[in-house]
Give the backbone structure.
Amino acid sequence: MARPPNYDQERKERDRQKAAKKAEKLAAKVAARERAKPEDETEAETETAK
């Protein structure tokens, strides 16, 4: 006989996968934004931070 479905566990697993995918996309977006930043702009920011 088949086991009864564990809906709560399945929901948590889907939510965990969704959160991981969202975090991965956000990290890729931040990395792309950093790569696209002009070099002189990043140098100016470090000069003002000192």
